[in-house]
Design goal:
single chain, 196 residues, four-stranded mixed beta sheet, 8 strands, 19% strand
Length: 196
């Protein structure tokens, strides 16, 4: 799998879930019912875990998912499979969700937020300015997930140049508080070592 590939030490990798393109042998197998493509969620989950492995081993992932073109789009040339025009963003956001979930659980383990669990906690997530949209998730899906899973009332994401890409910090927002600093920071490497 991905670990064996990463151990070979490639300079870079691309992650492409299999798509069924029209008028191909795979398309014929699909039409016969002999081939069943991954769902979008299955492909995102598998690709998320592959991305984590490659990053842990220092392998640069230069593309995740096919680049949409006028020919490569669902219904045009793609007959079936996990095609999404923002597939790479979905995968990166899914990995960021795992990291943020780990942060919240660790913060609660310290008792910092747990007392507010029933009333709805307010938190700030700190990250590199270039990672803010990834931490928020595609269409703010990670924020919605955190609010639902942890009964968080407000999630604010702050970009700071003090954190390198891939690192995420967290702090509790206290009533009336204007500024704060992270209570806890998890670097990408620390997260990946625990996750993989």
């Amino acid at each position: 799998g991905a670990v064996e590939i990463a151990r070979l030490g490639p300079d870079m990798a691309r992650i492409y879930p299999t798509l069924v393109l029209k008028d191909t042998p795979l398309h014929k197998l699909f039409l016969e019912g002999s081939y069943h493509p991954l769902s979008l969620q299955e492909a995102v989950t598998i690709s998320r875990d592959m991305l984590a492995i490659f990053r842990l081993y220092g392998v640069q992932v230069i593309r995740t998912g096919l680049q949409p073109t006028k020919d490569i789009a669902e219904g045009v040339q793609v007959a079936a499979g996990p095609f999404h025009p923002a597939f790479g963003e979905l995968v990166a956001a899914a990995l960021a969700r795992e990291q943020v979930e780990m942060l919240v659980e660790e913060l609660w383990g310290r008792g910092t937020v747990k007392s507010d669990k029933e009333n709805g906690a307010n938190i700030v997530l700190w990250t590199s300015p270039r990672d803010c949209s990834i931490v928020a998730g595609h269409k703010r899906s990670n924020i919605k997930f955190l609010k639902s899973r942890f009964h968080i009332s407000e999630v604010k994401i702050v970009g700071t140049r003090d954190l390198p890409r891939g690192s995420v910090g967290i702090s509790r927002i206290k009533a009336g508080q204007k500024t704060c600093t992270p209570d806890l920071i998890v670097t990408e490497n620390r997260f990946l070592l625990q996750y993989v």
